[in-house]
Amino acid sequence: MKVLVCVKRVPAPGARIVLTPDGRAIESGHLSFTTSPHEECAVEAGIQLKEAHGGTVTVLTLGPAEAGEQLRYAASVGADEAVLVPTDGSDIDPQATAAGLLAAIEDLESGGDGFDLILFGNESADSGGFQVGIRVAHGLRRPVVSGIKGIDVEDDTVVVRREIPNGFEVYRLPVPAVVAVKEGINLPRYPTLSGRLKSKKLDIHRREAELVPGGQRMVRLESPPEQEVKTEILSDAADVVDVFERLGVL
Amino acid sequence: MSVLVLIDHEQGEVPDSARQALTLGRDLARQLGAPLAAVAIGTGAEAVALGQAVDGVWHVDHPVLTDYAPAAWGESVVQLVAQEMPVAVVAPGSDRGNEVLAHVAALSDLPMVANILEADASAEAWNLTRVRWGGSLLEKAELSAAVRLVSAAAHAFPAAATDGPEAPVSQFSPDLGDAHALTRVTERVTEEAGITLATAPVVVSGGRGVGGPDGFGPLEELAELLAGAVGCSRVVTNNGWRPHSDQVGQTGTRVAPELYVACGISGAIQHWVGMMASKHVLAINTDPEAPMVTKAEYAVIGDVAEMVPAIVAEVRRRRST
């Protein structure tokens, strides 16, 4: 099966975030970057499907030229093809992002050989718009489900599972389909040495797209106010259970 | 010219996320001098009880809507919007809320602003504050659209009271086809019903400092004694010590319990954003400088492997006397 995985380059989660003086971006000089966590799992899911059913995995990103690093990483763990929709590195709103990806996908499929499954992360770790995959799916007129933590392919049906409290829901989508996955669907593998070497030679295809701004405009970013907390240090288990009693949780 | 709030009910049961969205919806309705109406879709919608939290309720029904179906829910809202022309549609910042709103946005080519904390609707372009990085960064954003689509960030708004007599109900029957039924829950697998992480009044959570999968035994005992649930940090699930469904944080579950007990968790920002809505936090850690310790209301400086069993023993001792 032909799988396409859309990924985003984001600063490594957990890094201390410092804003530029104008508040329009993150100081990136000292940061390391990675693939947004849900999307790293989407890449792994794509590779597992390829291993089980044959086919190819293509990775696609919309981002600055440096996002080639994330495409190469995906290749080092098993992706076959990589496509970059270049941006100037500024913040791209969700509508423009979806339109740019849609144009690239339509272009990639124009030869007639479409993708059976397109995978997204449920939301990007940084901007968290919760919509790009769904917009692209509607643009392609394909069914889409998000929040997915399990994928199986049975002939022309993709069977996906979504976690709910105390269990999960099952959806059955006919291919071609779009699925947005969540971390926890798998544990992404690490690259092998031969994978790393292969990824160095990867040819990254470029697809230019016009990025027309949508109706959501970022004005500036702010760090939330730090809350001053005076921590009460407890000395032993009896102190702790006193607190439980005081809070009424005992 | 109303404000509509989508209710992400499960077979008629209204979750906290919907009550929080109703609080945001009421704030917007007040700013705009507009009535507030709820949208309850599909089977079980007639059981949705919202009392005086809204001025009216739309019951949306169609044979396709027997169970949750994101595309069909989205299309139903689009058709209701075309009829009612609301100023805004507010969705809960839950999996379902954001998912359905994204379908609405995609189907009507409207912008959608996910997970907002504040909204100023006084000008044509709304000024919003929204969550980035799961809440460790804020974005000031402008939203210009004929119909504004926003979702309420999880645990950012108090839950609206839903008591009192029910508001008037109107019926809406959308025109849906087979394509809308493609994405519908076809099966539901329920595992052993117990206390769920998302709604437990107490969460006992473990991080790297727990040492390994076996180290969670005493945490499970403590959680059981306090009628709570066990959670963990991302390091723990990445190491395979616990299932991902136990993970608290930006890429896991967001919790807001009465008490959060953080055992051997350093408190990296992606974990903090998943539990910062907790009412009280107790940190158990060997490192007095760990961010979790300095941000917690209560802390014990010590080894989880000794402290947690001691706490379990103390709880048992007091209960038996």
Structure overview:
The complex is a heterodimer of chains A (250) and B (321). Chain A contains six helices and 13 strands. Chain A is an alpha/beta fold and 250 residues long. Chain A has a single domain, classed as 3-Layer(aba) Sandwich (Rossmann fold). In chain A, the strands form two sheets. A nine-stranded mixed sheet of chain A has the order 9-8-7-10-6-1-4-5-11, sandwiched between helices. In chain A, strands 2-3 form a two-stranded antiparallel ribbon. In chain A, β8 and β9 form a beta hairpin. Chain B is an alpha/beta fold and 321 residues long. Chain B has two domains: 3-181, HUPs (Rossmann fold), CATH 3.40.50; 202-320, TPP-binding domain (Rossmann fold), CATH 3.40.50.1220. Chain B is 28% helix and 26% strand. In chain B, a hairpin with a 4-residue loop joins β6 and β7. Chain B is elongated and about 65 Å long. Chain B starts with a strand and ends with a helix. β12 (216-222) of chain A pairs antiparallel with β7 of chain B, so a sheet runs across the interface.
Q: Layout of SSEs?
A:
The complex is a heterodimer of chains A (250) and B (321).
Chain A: E1 2-7, E2 9-11, E3 33-35, H1 37-53, E4 56-63, H2 68-76, E5 81-86, H3 94-108, E6 117-121, H4 132-140, E7 144-154, E8 157-164, E9 167-174, E10 177-181, H5 193-200, E11 204-206, E12 216-222, E13 232-234, H6 237-247
Parallel strand pairs in A: 1-4, 1-6, 4-5, 5-11, 6-10, 7-10
Antiparallel strand pairs in A: 2-3, 7-8, 8-9
Helix pairs in contact in A: 2-5, 3-4
Chain B: E1 3-6, H1 16-32, E2 36-41, E3 56-60, H2 70-84, E4 88-92, H3 95-108, E5 112-120, E6 126-132, E7 137-143, E8 148-152, E9 169-172, E10 185-190, E11 202-206, H4 217-225, E12 229-232, H5 234-238, E13 259-263, H6 269-275, E14 280-285, H7 291-295, E15 298-301, H8 304-320
Parallel strand pairs in B: 1-2, 1-4, 2-3, 3-9, 4-8, 5-8, 11-12, 11-13, 13-14, 14-15
Antiparallel strand pairs in B: 5-6, 6-7
